[in-house]
Amino acid sequence: MNTNHIRTIHGGSSLQGTIKVPGDKSISHRSLIIGSIAEGETNIEGFLYSEDPLSTADCLRKLGVNIPEIKKDEPFTISGLGLDGIKEPKEILNCGNSGTTMRLLMGLLAGQEGKNFILKGDTSLNERPMGRVGKPLSLMGGKIFGRERGNKAPISIHGSKLKGCFIGTPVASAQVKSAILLAGLKASGTTSVIEPASSRDHTERMLKAFGADISIRGELGRNIVINSGGKLIGQRILIPGDISSASFWMIAASIVPNSEILIKNVGLNPTRTGILKVMDSMGCNYEILDKSTIAGEPIGSIKVKTAKNLRSFTIEGDILPKLIDEIPILTVAACFCNGISEIKDAKELRFKETDRLKVMARQLHKFGAEITEKEDGLIINGQSRFHSAEVDSETDHRVAMSLAIASLLAKGGSKIIRANAASVSYPTFWEDLAQLTN
Predict the structure, then answer these.
(1) How far apart are CA 274 and CA 322, in angstroms?
(2) pLDDT per residue over 74-102, tens digit each?
(3) What residues are paired with 10 via a beta bridge?
(4) CA–CA separation, 278 vs 275, rounded Å?
(5) Which of the 8 DSSP states describes residue 239?
(6) Of 105, 125, 256, 437, which is most buried by a Cβ count within 10 Å?
(7) What domains appear along the chain, each with residue ranges and CATH number?
(8) How far apart are the C-alpha atoms of 122 and 143, rounded to whole Å?
(9) How far apart are CA 279 and CA 254, in angstroms?
């Protein structure tokens, strides 16, 4: 990453216009995998054209799936192989840097009887823990081997006959749960996954939309039950815009004077919409238009106008998993609310791409924000007057974009160092910002 990549942002512009944000990454991976094992064609629109989902496409092609070359912003069609059509590949499946690719493929391939597969990743992925997926698959009869007693890639899988069983996952992980459900499609009888808390449910929704025999039982959707023996039928999928990417514009339009933005086709999955609850408590001025459901996912457009006299807020407890990625931009919002806002129970943010609590406090101080850092959160004084500053993303994509929005509220021109970090999740962020401020 070029450390000298600097952007200058001038304060004082309002934001006006209509945009679409990048497609949801979790749904992009799953549309490829589930489309590959369905019968007939699956048409995919809104795919996130970035390295991780493209690694998934590359592995599936090596397994015999007909996936055309994927081009940015162009829909494409997969011809599915059905549940039994996956071929033994002639080469190793390279998952790149994508943990989702490796963990979901482990579940998909464990039940492919008599076929052998080897999965590897880049240096960083080869050090990430895979035992959390391998162990439950072994309980179903899967034969999975790897370095450090099966915990690290390269992973070797000898496809075998799986039996459905009852599996409790010690942590709420969408990847672990998804791998078990994909294995359950090929296992005899019924497979049941119990989660300690509700994790992102994109896999369950999509499997159901493709015709799988899947049901959610128990409180909070913690017990997911899948029966094998059915078949999946290809669907049309419109991948919604990622609400985490949309949140930068939702907050910007709320706090930057004289702004009005329409963000088209955003995913409104209830496991991801904590940001809307916080905006409600702040008194933001937004409405949701054109609601629909596509391949099991709720989707809509969000129109946001500037709101005056925003109220301070407290974020704590159960809502945190639903807005963990939005905390950096909400920290910026808190600087422009009336009164004192507080973020609690957010210790996990210290272990993201950077220590996001420390980095946001350190960088916003430079604009003149009053923020106190606590062990598990932040206390933020509202009604700030920002002056221009030179700030640094410290290589974190969500920090880079949050600082860009903060700069719009500072007098004069501010510089953002290492601004290109934004491209990790939002490759066209700077172009969209330029379009909205013109």
Answers:
(1) 5
(2) 999 999 999 999 999 999 999 998 889 99
(3) 413
(4) 5
(5) P
(6) 105
(7) 6-22+240-437 (3.65.10.10), 25-238 (3.65.10.10)
(8) 23
(9) 9
Give the CB-side neighbour count of residue 55, counting CA atoms within 13 A. 22
Write down the catalytic residue from 325, 392, 396, 432.
Answer: 325
The owner of tokens 């997926």 is: 133
pLDDT along the chain (438 residues), means of 10: 77 95 94 98 94 94 97 95 96 93 97 97 89 95 95 96 91 88 96 86 95 83 85 95 96 98 96 93 97 92 97 90 88 97 86 83 97 94 94 92 97 95 88 95
For residues 11, 13, 14, 16, the Cα torsion angle rounded to the nearest 10 degrees is -130
CB 157 within 8 A of CB 143: yes
Q: Which two tokens stand for residue 424?
A: 């990790």
Reduced to 3 states (helix: H, G, I; strand: E, B; else coil), residue 292 is strand
The rounded distance, in Å, linking the Cα atoms of 358 and 84 is 50
Structure tokens at 214: 């899947």
Is residue 216 within 8 Å of residue 204, measured between CB atoms?
A: yes
β partners of residue 236: 43
Cβ–Cβ under 8 Å, residues 386 and 368: yes
User: Helix 327-334 and helix 397-408: axis angle, to 10°?
Assistant: 20
274-296 pLDDT, tens per residue?
A: 999 999 999 999 999 999 998 88
Q: Tell how far CA 314 is from the center of its chain.
A: 24
Please state, in angstroms and rounded to a whole number, the distance separating the CA atoms of residues 212 and 207.
Answer: 5
Alpha carbons 29 and 166: distance in angstroms, whole number: 26
Pairing of strands 166-168, 143-146: unpaired
Q: Note if 325 is an active site residue.
A: yes
**Whole-angstrom distance, CA of residue 3 vs CA of residue 61:** 36
Is there a contact between 102 and 155 (Cβ–Cβ < 8 Å)? yes
In this structure, the strands spanning 190-194 and 166-168 are parallel
Q: Residue 417 has which token pair?
A: 């160092």
Q: Is there a cis peptide before residue 154, judged by omega within 30 degrees of 0?
A: yes
C-alpha to C-alpha distance for 257 and 238, rounded to whole angstroms: 33
The answer to whether 198 and 218 are in contact (CB under 8 A) is no
